[in-house]
Amino acid sequence: MNSIKICVIGLGYVGLPLARLFSTKYSTIGFDMNQSRVNELMAGHDATFEVSDELLQDAINSHGFKCTSDIEEIKDCNFYIVAVPTPVDINNRPDLKPLWGASETVGKVISKGDIVVYESTVYPGVTEEECIPVIEKISGLKFNADFFAGYSPERINPGDKEHTVEKIKKVTSGSTPEIADIVDEVYNSVLVNGTHKAPSIKVAEASKIIENSQRDVNIAFMNELAKVFNAMGIDTNDVIEAAASKWNFIKLKPGLVGGHCISVDPYYLIQKAQVYGVLPRVMFSARRLNDGMGDYIANQIIKLMNKKGIMVKDANILVLGFTFKENCPDVRNTKIMDMYQTLKEYTKNITVYDPWADAYKVMAEYGIDIITSSVEKLKDKFDVVILGVAHKQFKELDVRKLLINECGVVYDVKGVLDRNIVDGRL
C-alpha cells in the first residue's frame, strides 16, 4: 500500500484518541453514527476528556482530521479500524451487535486490497468467525483474496493521563504474514514504545481478554480478603501495606470493579470456553464475587449505622462519586449503582454528588438525578457520607462537615481518606 488513508469507526474512549494520534502521520477520518458526537468533536471538544481540546483542535486545524456520520465520506479510505464497544446482555452473554453493525458499515465501503483492523475486546475467533463473514456478505469480496484483516486490541485506560495511547505498547496481528507486517508497521509508526506482533489474530484476541480477566481475578482475591479481615476486625489496607513490603507482592486494593472492560470482558471468555466444554471456575467465581461487592459494602454501612444508633429507615445518605473510576466522566457499568440499589431498599433520601459525571447521561441510563456542582450546599445535611469514587476534589474535602452531627457515619470505599475521620473502609 503506497498511500494509507485511515478511517476509525467508533469515536468513543478508544476510537477518538487513536484517530487523533493517527492523524499526525496519516490522512485520517473518524466515523461515528452519533451525529451529536460528531458535531461536538468537530467543534473542538471531547466530552470524555480523553483528548484535550488543544490536541483535538490541532488535529483538525493542522492535520486535516475530520469526523463524520456520512458513510459516503469514508469510501476512499483503505485502512479501516473498528473501535466499537463489546457489551454483554442482561444475562452476561456477549452482545456482538455493535461489532456486526460496524462490520456492515465496513462491508459497504471496503474495496479490493483494503485492510480492516478490529480493536474491540472479544473472545478468540470473533474477528474471523463473526465479523469477516458479515463484510464478505455485504461487500461481495473474498477474505484474504480481495481484502484483509488484522486485530490490535485496545489498551486505553480511561482517565489515565500517564499511559496515553501513543505510550502504550500495542499487540498487532494480521490475516496473512504480509498483512501482519503492514498492520504492525502502521501502528509502530505512531507509537513511542512500539508493538508486539502476535503470530495470529486469535492469539492477539486471546491476549487482550486475559489481560482484563487476570486483573479481575486478582481484585476478586483482594475483595475476598477484605471480607475475611473485616469479619476479623483487621484493617485490610494495613494488611496490604505490610505484605507489599515484600519485593514480589502484587499490590492491589479491594474495591468495586465496574466500567466497560474488566467487569465485562471475562464473560466473553467464560461463555466461549463453555462451548468447548470447559468451565472456567476461577474466572466465574471472581466475576460473581466482584459483582456482589456493591451490595456487600451497602450492608457494611448499614451495620455501622446500627452500631451508632442511626435509624436506617429514611436516613439521609450522601454518595460522593458515581463514575466507575476516579477523575473520569465514564459512567458505563458503574458499580456505585449496586450499592445505591441496596441502600434504596431502606431509604429514598439518597443524594449523589459527582462533579465529573454528566447528569443527563446518568438520568438517561440509570434514572438517578445527581448533583454535579457546589458541594457547599450539602454541609450539615446527612446521617451518612460514602466516598465511592476517589475524585481529586474529594480528597481535600472535609467530609465530616457534611454530616448532621458527629454521630454520623463516614465510609471510605477507596481507602483514600484520613483513617482518623472515617468510621469504616473496605
TrEMBL record:
Transmembrane segments: none
Entries under Pfam families matching the protein: UDPG_MGDP_dh (PF00984), UDPG_MGDP_dh_C (PF03720), UDPG_MGDP_dh_N (PF03721)
Gene Ontology molecular function: any one: oxidoreductase activity, acting on the CH-OH group of donors, NAD or NADP as acceptor
SUPFAM superfamilies: 6-phosphogluconate dehydrogenase C-terminal domain-like, NAD(P)-binding Rossmann-fold domains, UDP-glucose/GDP-mannose dehydrogenase C-terminal domain
Keyword Nucleus among record annotations: no
InterPro entries membership: 6-PGluconate_DH-like_C_sf (IPR008927), NAD(P)-bd_dom_sf (IPR036291), UDP-Glc/GDP-Man (IPR017476), UDP-Glc/GDP-Man_DH_C (IPR014027), UDP-Glc/GDP-Man_DH_C_sf (IPR036220), UDP-Glc/GDP-Man_DH_dimer (IPR014026), UDP-Glc/GDP-Man_DH_N (IPR001732), UDP_ManNAc/GlcNAc_DH (IPR028359)
Domain UDP-glucose/GDP-mannose dehydrogenase C-terminal: 318-419
Any one GO BP annotation for this protein: polysaccharide biosynthetic process
Keywords: NAD, Oxidoreductase
Top-level taxon of origin: Bacteria
Alphabetical list of Gene3D superfamilies matching this protein: NAD(P)-binding Rossmann-like Domain
UniProt similarity note: Belongs to the UDP-glucose/GDP-mannose dehydrogenase family.
The protein's name: Nucleotide sugar dehydrogenase
UniProt organism field: Bacteroides cellulosilyticus
